[in-house]
Amino acid sequence: MTSALDRLKQHSSIVADTGDIEAIRKHQPEDATTNPSLLLKASEMPAYQAYLNKAWDYAKSAEKDADKQLELACDYFAVLIGKEIADIVPGYISTEVDARLSFDTQATIAKAKTLLALYQKEGVSQDKILIKIASTWEGIKAAEQLEKEGIKCNLTLLFSQAQARACADANVFLISPFVGRILDWHVANGLEKPTDPLADPGVQSVRSIYEFYKRHDYKTVVMGASFRNTGEIIALTGCDKLTISPALLEELGQLTDVKEYLLESDYPLEAKPAPLSEAQFRWLHNEDAMATEKLAEGIRAFAQAQEELETRFKGL
Q1: Is pLDDT at 265 greater than 90 in this prediction?
Q2: How many domains does the chain have?
Q3: For residue 125, pLDDT beyond 80
Q4: Residue of 83, 111, 128, 132 marked catalytic
Q5: Catalytic: 132?
């Protein structure tokens, strides 16, 4: 009998949301994504101690300044994990820029190029890498410039229609609109957890973005992310890509008798709206309390994970 995961793979590209190399081998996704929290988790596993040591030894040999050593060690650790993943998945590996650069366009561009140089050092082609950047105005502008230089980007921590529109205006390769964190916010603010996934505000947000892109013929790929349960994932069947944790991939592989959904893809085309100005973007995003709070919270959480990873290197 066909599993829910098998059916998903017929309609969407499945991406593993993990830094666990063995989990990726097991589930055989097309692409994989990592973030600072996932890398921190990987750093705590004995199987990845050799990667930590290699990254730290390289950083100490390449940099004299203590702060720069920590920065380089974290970057190289992310790349070493990414290289192993890139050797397994046929498609892309997303590697994230330090969240503490989320409001600095030029520093984000420089960090992206540092990560790509480290990947090149490890023999991984640039065409396998997506540079993952928070969907702030500054991050979107950095991605716009990187895309012009042929560097593909994955815009993450995306919660609002304003963010989605600005990413499309910037011709970024891929966006990762979040689902579960949107639901979290609404539940924390009084919503009862919906029993129908189509009533899930996170699912509704991604479906709305997907339809907006298709109606206006934007080429940016929509990759649903940050899922809390299998119902959210199944309700987005047909989305361009879906990035899923190993635990939920495992659960989907065991499910057989589930309600079937499928996003439409053939919408009547409409003229693209004028690109958002910075002022318009900031106002529209500001008007969405959920998106404003969750973007800030996500950046803080990823920055904290980065700092904790630096602390691990200090202890080596």
Answers
A1: no
A2: 1
A3: yes
A4: 132
A5: yes
Among the residues of 216-277, which ranges form H helices? 230-234, 246-254
Task: Indicate whether this model's pTM tops 0.85.
Answer: yes
- Give the whole-angstrom CA distance, residue 197 versus residue 284: 26
283 and 148 Cβ atoms separated by less than 8 Å = no
pLDDT band at 1 (very low <50, low <70, confident <90, very high): confident
Distance, C-alpha 15 to centroid of its chain? 10
β partners of residue 177: 158
Residue 255 backbone dihedrals phi, psi, to 5 degrees = -85, 135
CATH of the domain at 244: 3.20.20.70
CB-based contact 77:50 (threshold 8 Å): no
Output the six-digit token pair for 46.
Answer: 């004995």
**Whether the Cβ atoms of residue 87 and residue 50 lie closer than 8 Å to each other:** no
- Position 252 scores a pLDDT of 97
Which pLDDT tens digit goes with each residue over 32-58?
999 999 999 999 999 999 999 999 999
Which whole number is the average pLDDT over 264-289? 96
Residue 257: per-residue pLDDT:
87
Q: What is the extent of the structural domain holding 221?
A: 4-314
Tokens encoding 131: 């540079």
Reading the block at residue 71, the tokens are 């920065």
C-alpha–C-alpha distance, residues 85 and 93, integer Å: 7
What are the structure tokens assigned to 285, written together? 């995003």
- To which residue do tokens 């998903």 refer? 8
